[in-house]
Design brief:
- This protein has 296 residues and is of the alpha/beta class.
- It folds into two domains: 129 residues, no CATH class; 128 residues, no CATH class.
- It has ten helices and twelve strands.
- The strands form two sheets. Strands 2-3-6-7-8-9-10-12-11 form a nine-stranded mixed sheet, covered by helices on one side. A three-stranded mixed sheet has the order 1-5-4, with no helix packed on it.
- Strand 7, helix 3 and strand 8 form a beta-alpha-beta unit.
- The longest helix has 16 residues.
- The structure holds iron/sulfur cluster (SF4).
- The site of iron/sulfur cluster has 10 residues, from loops.
Length: 296
């Protein structure tokens, strides 16, 4: 693992993402090295010869000018890197950013595959309406271990519970859903009492990682190759439509609201989680751009 310090002017950037006004990434690169990482394209903006997952640049920035100007704005920490990857334990750059923004009134959204975030629970509690999401796409630690170097699923679920029990809104982000491997219902059952939202996102193989994933399936799950070829080579979306129907019925059976591409609503903290399906990527942007509330 190559780790180096870099100095940047600012840490907060205006975002084109439909889910936030600003984004911040205290690190470049990500030790979690997920095989399906959608952010691996970021490597081309660095001078690193190492593979994605084998380097981390630790950012040091000029102090945030006038943090109060972000009051009421949505700041997404971790759009292209995990802000609680293990380097954070040593360098504390995410904690440094939160400390700078404390009292600013910014609306925080943080995404992670780690429980190191528990260290910052008291600090995060000081932000109004903070929302934390954990990516979980399996309960099978062997598959998880094949896919990413984040902490175990049990540790993610435990962190989610601790945050939720502390009154902070949490999201179980079931992503990416691997056809016939990710047991969405089992994950939702485990998480539903500890989260406010359950997001569903299907696996796409449009990135450079597509062949890596197909090779993995060929080697580890050869019986699934006809299905994966049908979905990812023939472009048949019948599997996703059937899963969408199945999950809608599942949610209805359990009294959970089920929506498509729409989390533009607010619910009482203690209400059962809302399941939001993001299978239909092409419609996400439009839906989210039309949303005034964005994420709860
Ligand atoms: S945790 Fe996120 S940013 Fe990091 S490697 Fe995995 S998918 Fe990429």
């Amino acid at each position: 693992m190559t780790i180096k310090d870099i100095h940047v002017n600012g840490i907060i950037t205006k975002s084109n993402l439909p889910v936030c006004d600003y984004s911040a990434n205290p690190y470049v690169g990500c030790e979690h090295a997920c095989k399906y990482c959608y952010a691996c394209f970021m490597k081309r903006f660095t001078d690193h010869p190492e593979a994605w997952g084998d380097f981390v640049d630790v950012k040091f920035w000029q102090p945030v000018k006038n943090p109060r100007k972000y009051e009421g704005k949505e700041l997404f920490i971790g759009s292209v890197t995990d802000p609680y990857q293990s380097s954070e334990e040593k360098y504390g750059r995410t904690r440094a950013l939160l400390t700078e923004l404390k009292g600013s009134g910014v609306r925080l959204s943080i995404s992670t595959k780690s429980d190191l975030i528990l260290r910052d629970l008291d600090l995060i509690k000081t932000f109004p309406d903070a929302r934390i999401s954990w990516s979980i796409n399996t309960l099978d630690e062997n598959f998880r271990n094949d896919m990413d170097k984040g902490v175990s699923i049990e540790r993610r679920l435990n962190a989610m519970k601790v945050f939720h029990d502390s009154g902070i809104r949490t999201t179980c982000f079931i992503s990416p859903i691997f056809p016939e491997i990710t047991d969405v219902k089992a994950i939702a059952e485990r998480a539903k009492n500890d989260c406010n939202l359950i997001w569903l996102e299907n696996l796409n193989l449009r990135g450079a990682f597509g062949p890596v994933i197909m090779n993995y399936i060929r080697t580890k799950y050869p019986r699934l190759m006809p299905l994966y070829r049908d979905i990812y080579i023939s472009g048949n979306d019948g599997y996703w439509q059937a899963l969408d129907d199945d999950l809608r019925n599942f949610a209805t059976d359990r009294g959970l609201e089920y929506r498509i591409n729409d989390d533009s609503f607010s619910r009482p903290f203690d209400a059962p989680p809302v399941v939001v399906n993001y299978f239909y990527h092409s419609k996400i942007k439009k839906s989210a751009q039309n949303s005034s509330h964005k994420r709860i």
